[in-house]
Specification:
- By secondary structure, the chain is an alpha/beta fold.
- The protein folds into two domains: 99 residues; 116 residues, Nucleotidyltransferase, domain 5.
- Helix content is 59%, strand content 12%.
- The strands form two sheets. It has a five-stranded mixed beta sheet. A two-stranded parallel ribbon has the order 1-7.
- It is elongated and about 160 Å long.
């Protein structure tokens, strides 16, 4: 074997430092183990006071849960009582309503009996009137005959309108003018259409008549004017409305004028071909 090389004077011995380091690590390990053991001992082995407090906590928790159940039951009972109270109030109101209806029914029955009595009386009266109807009709007939025998003033004679030299091709449209209204004659048997002069400018009937007259050159508008000052004044008003219509629609309606002396009805039999039957 070769000889061990002798250490030179410059080498360093690390044994004391490593020994100290190992000793420190061992101490720290021992301390950690002891601390863990102490902690484990405290977790497993509790003191009697801690155990007693834990038991009390468990009991208090159970009591709290039991009380909460009782509170829930009481709350449910309260809600049930409130609902029953509502039902009781509703039943009371219904009972009061039924009682009032019963009272009203009694009043209705009394009124019905009274109405039945009145009905019987009316029925008896009606039977009596029916029995006397024939005699009443005879009496009315006598009164009518008596009125016919009286010398009553005669009715105004009808005012017959005659043509005044118009061409046979002319188609006349007759409008009677009185104090406050105009009357459009369209038929021999029906009543003329009456329009107040105050609303004549807004009357669709009158405007349609003017449009129809203006639609053909042979159509002619004839005003039949009653023989009084108010009718003459109304004629000027109506004639002015015709002029305004001509200006607005660029038409040339030239109305004719025939006076109606007296108060009789207008007779247009001569112009039957231009009027409805």
């Amino acid at each position: 074997m070769g000889r061990r090389r002798s250490d030179s004077g410059t080498s360093v011995n690390l044994f004391p430092f490593l020994s100290i380091l190992v000793s420190i690590i061992g101490c720290l390990t021992l301390i950690i183990v002891i601390i863990n053991l102490i902690a484990m001992g405290r977790g497993e082995g509790q003191t009697p006071e801690e155990v007693e407090r834990a038991q009390k906590f468990v009991e208090l928790k159970k009591q709290k849960e039991a009380r909460q159940e009782e509170i829930d039951k009481l709350r449910q009972q309260i809600e049930d009582l409130i609902q029953k109270n509502r039902e009781t109030l509703a039943a009371r109101d219904k009972l009061a309503m039924l009682k009032e209806m019963l009272n009203n029914q009694e009043e209705i029955d009394a009124d019905r009996n009274e109405l039945i009595a009145h009905f019987n009386l009316l029925q008896t009266t009606n039977e009596q009137l029916v029995a006397n109807q024939k005699s009443l009709q005879e009496e009315i007939k006598k009164k009518e005959d008596e009125i016919a025998r009286r010398k009553l003033p005669p009715k105004p004679a009808a005012l017959r309108v005659r043509p005044s030299g118009s061409s046979t091709n002319t188609r006349p449209f007759f409008v009677e003018i009185s104090d406050t209204s105009i009357y459009i004659h369209r038929s021999l048997s029906k009543e003329p259409v009456a329009i107040p002069i105050a609303s004549l400018n807004q009357s669709k009937e009158f405007i349609d008549l003017l449009k129809k007259v203006a639609s053909q050159p042979y159509n002619r508008l004839i005003f039949l004017v009653r023989g009084n000052k108010s009718a003459a004044k109304a004629f000027h008003t109506v004639n002015g409305l015709v002029s305004a219509f001509n200006s607005a629609n660029k038409t040339r309606i030239i109305p004719g004028r025939l006076p109606l002396p007296g108060k009789g009805l207008v007779d247009l039999q001569v112009f039957a071909q231009f009027l409805e039957p």
